[in-house]
Write a structure and sequence with these properties.
mainly alpha, single chain
Length: 195
C-alpha cells in the first residue's frame, strides 16, 4: 500500500469507486458475507437495503469531491495540495471552491443521517450503524465550521477545519463503510498523515 497524505484524504471521501468483487464471497470482520455467483449465503432484503444506503452515501460524497474533469476538489481547494506528493501551500487554497465542496458534503451527510434515523440497521451492521450515528453528526458540525472558515479571511483556518472533518471521518467512518460495503476501499488509513 502506498502512503496517502491528506490529499487522498481528499479521498476523505473522494476515492474513486472500485469495481465489485468478481466472484465468491467477501467477508470482513463484523460484517456479513456478501453473495457471489458461487452460491454463497444471500443477504436479506434489509441487508441489501442497508448496503444500498451506504453505496448511495458514498456516491453522493464522491460527486461532491470530484470535478467533471475528474480532479479531486478538497485536496487543492481545502487543503492546499496540488498533488499526492506536493507540500501543503495555503496560497493554493480556494475558499469558494472548498465552500461548495463542504456544502455538498454536508448535504449528503445530512441526507444520509436523516435516512439512517428512519430505519433500524440489520443486526449484521449494528456496530457500523452506531459508528455512523455517532461520527456523522460531529462531521456535519465540522463541515459547518469549514463553511464558516471559507467565508472568513484565513486560508489556514480552512485547512485546519478540513483536517478536523477528516479526523472525524477517518478511520472510524471509512472503516465502517468498508465493513458494510467491502467491495469498495473507502480509504487506506494506513498512509493518512496527521496534521
Amino acid at each position: 500500500m502506498f502512503q496517502l497524505g491528506l490529499h487522498r484524504v481528499a479521498a476523505t471521501l473522494g476515492v474513486v469507486l472500485a469495481a465489485a468483487t468478481a466472484c465468491g464471497t467477501t467477508s470482513t470482520p463484523g460484517g456479513p458475507n456478501l453473495p457471489g455467483p458461487s452460491g454463497s449465503p444471500a443477504l436479506s432484503a434489509a441487508d441489501h437495503a442497508y448496503v444500498d444506503l451506504i453505496r448511495g452515501y458514498w456516491a453522493d460524497l464522491h460527486v461532491a469531491d470530484i470535478t467533471a474533469a475528474g480532479q479531486d476538489v478538497d485536496a487543492k481547494a481545502c487543503l492546499g495540495e496540488l498533488g499526492p506528493t506536493s507540500p501543503q501551500d495555503v496560497k493554493v487554497v480556494e475558499p469558494q471552491v472548498c465552500r461548495a465542496y463542504a456544502v455538498a458534503t454536508m448535504t449528503a451527510s445530512q441526507k444520509f443521517l436523516a435516512t439512517l434515523g428512519a430505519i433500524q440497521a440489520p443486526g449484521a451492521f449494528s456496530a457500523d450503524d452506531q459508528v455512523f450515528r455517532t461520527h456523522i453528526p460531529i462531521a456535519i458540525s465540522d463541515l459547518k465550521a469549514l463553511i464558516t472558515a471559507c467565508d472568513g479571511q484565513s486560508r489556514r483556518a480552512i485547512i485546519d477545519a478540513m483536517w478536523a472533518f477528516a479526523r472525524e471521518m477517518i478511520p472510524d467512518v471509512t472503516n465502517a463503510l468498508d465493513d458494510v460495503e467491502p467491495s469498495v476501499k473507502h480509504l487506506d488509513p494506513s498512509g493518512t498523515q496527521t496534521n
